[in-house]
């Protein structure tokens, strides 16, 4: 599932190609993929691409915002009029853009320039929600969302308090809670806990206050690294140009169970914590 670095990579890609473009036509292939009247999009100009946590906000004129949740398998792929991946893209064999629309395409936005934006979603958990200013302010997802990881609100005190409040929950489940901090999912939770030598199943109440500062530091560091490498393409994730990320090669534990720890050589293990497959090193992070 795309997490903050993957969604941020898509955001940056769309920012380059979509801002200033005007929508000419919207084709909805799966009705529940688009919430709101597709007619609202006609003639709207894209003014900015924002992100909150794992959600994208395509901001248009007249106060219209398309709130996009990629969820499990969602993709937003930009196809320029002349087709093919754009300059600066990765290996052409990685590009999905030659196969658009695919059987997983749910919504197609045609732009006045002749370019197109495809919303693909194999598992159909993703969505595009059209909101005016009033409804954006009231949106139940956005209004409950916690601070961004780099926000001063995501402080040592705030995270320590969250751990104390839910002292019997695992530290991993605290990191996955989007109301505590926005944007962390399974991959970056496992990676940041490895980098701070904390076992993911550790009860949050047992995390000492002095461990919190390095944990926040490593969370920020690993997310920044994720953005730098264009995100993790474990499964369906691709960027706005239809290209895969390279962060998977940088991971220490996620998806590496049965392989040696890059730090100590011990075979990495996989367990279930917070209802999710969880990867860790029994030596670096200890056992519970
Ligand atoms: Zn290790």
The largest β sheet comes out as: 5 strands, mixed
For this structure, the CATH topology of the largest domain is N-terminal domain of MutM-like DNA repair proteins
Number of H- or I-type helical stretches: 7
Annotated CATH homologous superfamily of the largest domain: MutM-like, N-terminal
What distance lies between the first and last C-alpha atoms, to the nearest angstrom?
27 Å
Strand content: 15-25%
Oligomer: single chain
Determine the structural class based on helices, strands and strand pairing. alpha+beta
Q: Would you count the extended β strands for me?
A: 11
Structure keywords:
288 residues, alpha+beta, N-terminal domain of MutM-like DNA repair proteins, Helicase, Ruva Protein, domain 3, 2 domains, five-stranded mixed beta sheet, four-stranded antiparallel beta sheet, 25% helix, globular, binds zinc ion
Structure notes:
With 288 residues, the protein is of the alpha+beta class. It has 2 domains: 4-144, N-terminal domain of MutM-like DNA repair proteins; 156-280, Helicase, Ruva Protein, domain 3 (Orthogonal Bundle), CATH 1.10.8.50. The chain contains 7 helices and 11 strands. It has helices at residues 4-18, 133-138, 140-144, 156-165, 171-176, 186-195, 209-228; strands spanning 23-28, 34-35, 46-52, 55-60, 65-69, 74-79, 105-111, 116-121, 127-131, 269-273, 276-280. The strands form 3 sheets. A 5-stranded mixed sheet has the order 2-9-5-4-3. The chain has a 4-stranded antiparallel sheet with strand order 1-7-8-6, covered by helices on one side. Helix 1 (4-18) packs parallel to helix 7 (209-228), helix 4 crosses helix 7 (209-228) and helix 6 (186-195) crosses helix 7 (209-228). The longest helix has 20 residues, at 209-228. The model is unreliable at 87-94 (pLDDT under 50). Residues 261, 263-264, 266, 281, 283-284 line the site of zinc ion (ZN).
